[in-house]
Amino acid sequence: MANPVQKLADVITMPARTAGSQATSAATGTVAHLRSWTTNQVDDWGRDDAFASRAWSLSHLRWATSVGGAEHVPKRAGALIVVNARRFALAPLFAALAIGAAVDRPVRFVGRPDIAPLGPLMQRLGALLPIEAEIEGALRAGQLVVLGAAHTRTNLHTGPIDHCLVGAAVAARVRVLPAATVSVPMRRGARVEIGHPVRLSQRRRGPLEELDTADQLQVRINAVLDELEGTMTGTPIDWLPNILVGRV
Amino acid sequence: MRVLISGMGGELGSRVASLLENESWVGSIEGIDADPPRRRLRRTVFHRIVPGQHHRTVKVITDFNPHVVVHIAVWEPHARAATATARSLTDDAATSILGAAAECRALESIIVRSGIEIYGRARGSVTRPSEQVAVNPTSEYGRMVEQIERTADSISRRVGVSVGTLRLATVLGPHVPSALGRVLRLPAVPFSALADPPFAVIHQHDAAEAFVLAARARLNEPLNIVAPGAITTLQAIRRGRRMPVPLIGPEWGVARAVTYLAGAPVPDHVQEMLHRGRLADNSRAKELIGFAPSRTTSDVIEQLYGWPSVVHTPAVREVA
């Protein structure tokens, strides 16, 4: 028969023991996570699929992103998807993660700085340097690449699109798709709407093709933004209740 | 067809010679190196010539009068020789062997070993350069292979023969001396804690096969030879069950000194790889010469840690 004093001591120290065992299991879990994180694999461009999946799961805490028009994205071939970008919204990153989850393919995005530690961290998420040769290489290899337009303060319209970077898609002869991204600072909902591929009415033989494609993209993204009622200004005005119920 | 192989004494050169012996289009094979071949070759003639013996090199090559020259005599810094020695040996070999080959009337094609270090890893450089990207070496080894390519190109222009350049990723294999391989096999391996960028390598057998395919196809342009996939230093360390030593910056000097004393010096191109990564686009190799690596980068790294230090081969017949 157990000593009653010892049984009493067990009862008294139980919370401490529980806390200790919980701390031990938490530490063990953290170590296991770290081990699994450091043994992940990276692909030819340095994208870590498991890391990107975790980032996507983590982003659900803030955003509930829906994707429309995913059927326009090619199943296997490469394509350049150009999105509008509201300031501080990290639109290319979230668009790449959202489209990747929708089409079940790794999607890269343009806009990695070449400075540690941010650059390598973003490379794990699939970021590419904003260099034409780098984007062209990825597109030629059949990758999906998201390119952000110049930042704007609102979701009303898109900023200018760098025609030199669009030229990478022209050189690689892949589809170029416009996509509108809309998010509201005070709500969880965010939307990525992918449009039909851009086709120029007049074929150009020289660099005008890139310029025309970039202009056409801007027009098409603005059209989609209009359809999405892109009335967000990015200012405190957006916080007014009548605007808060805006559709995204 | 007569094929001359420079650098035949190394593991890569021996393997290339062995594979070429099985090629139907190859008639006679001769090889040059400072060390004898590392495997048994049945119909290859070997000449032991130390780099720098220009007259002897020229005589052997012009007497043989090859149709195809496979130039593998490139010394990677701190693989078999210190950086200064490696540079001197590589320059001597390139000048005398390629120069002598240019004097041969029968010469049709030169296949040269180069490295993806030639692209350099300057800030803002392309992460995964293709062959069209301009070269901008930022390490001593990169500048060495750039010099070899320049010598080969000048011969191509003056003599009018085809010159194919194989830009190899770091070659790893069970008996290949490699600065990267030695560092990764240390019990405690330093890595860049802030960057830990990805890099790619190539297995020695795949590299040798690429040389044979390039010689057969009379390759006439540069080509990246890289295993598919990539791996970061930390991931490699974890696979090898080594102790990771995270470094941020200034302490790299101390780490290099310690690894030097431990027998695994870190030359500048390896340090650059650990800091900035090293990848290359390998898509054209399949298209141009039909080359498809049999091992991924992860496989090669797995095997790096699987290779025993000493292989005990039992005697075929007991004699005592």
Describe this structure as you would to a colleague:
The complex is a heterodimer of chains A (248) and B (320). Chain A has helices spanning 4-38, 49-59, 91-103, 118-125, 132-140, 163-172, 208-227, 241-244; strands spanning 64-68, 79-86, 107-110, 127-128, 144-152, 175-183, 189-194. With 248 residues, chain A is an alpha/beta fold. Chain A folds into two domains: 1-39; 49-244, Glycerol-3-phosphate (1)-acyltransferase (3-Layer(aba) Sandwich). Chain A has a seven-stranded mixed beta sheet, sandwiched between helices. In chain A, strand 3, helix 4 and strand 4 form a beta-alpha-beta unit. The longest helix of chain A is centred in the first third of the chain and has 35 residues, at 4-38. Chain B has 320 residues and is an alpha/beta fold. Chain B has a domain at 2-173 and 200-227 and 279-293: NAD(P)-binding Rossmann-like Domain (Rossmann fold, 3-Layer(aba) Sandwich), CATH 3.40.50.720. Chain B is built from eleven helices and 13 strands. In chain B, helix 1 (11-21) crosses helix 6, helix 2 runs parallel beside helix 3 (83-102) and helix 3 (83-102) packs parallel to helix 4 (140-159). The interface between A and B is medium-sized, with 26 and 31 residues.
**Residue fraction in strands of chain A:** 15-25%
Tell me how many strands of chain B there are: 13
Mean pLDDT of chain B: 93
Task: Compute the separation of the termini of chain B in Å.
Answer: 45 Å
CATH fold naming of the domain at 2-173 and 200-227 and 279-293 in chain B: Rossmann fold
SSE run of chain A:
HHEEHEHEHEHEEHH
**Gyration radius of chain B, rounded:** 19 Å
The CATH C-level class name of the domain at 2-173 and 200-227 and 279-293 in chain B: Alpha Beta
Average per-residue pLDDT of chain A, rounded, comes to 85
Q: CATH architecture of the domain at 2-173 and 200-227 and 279-293 in chain B, please?
A: 3-Layer(aba) Sandwich
Poorly predicted runs of chain B are none
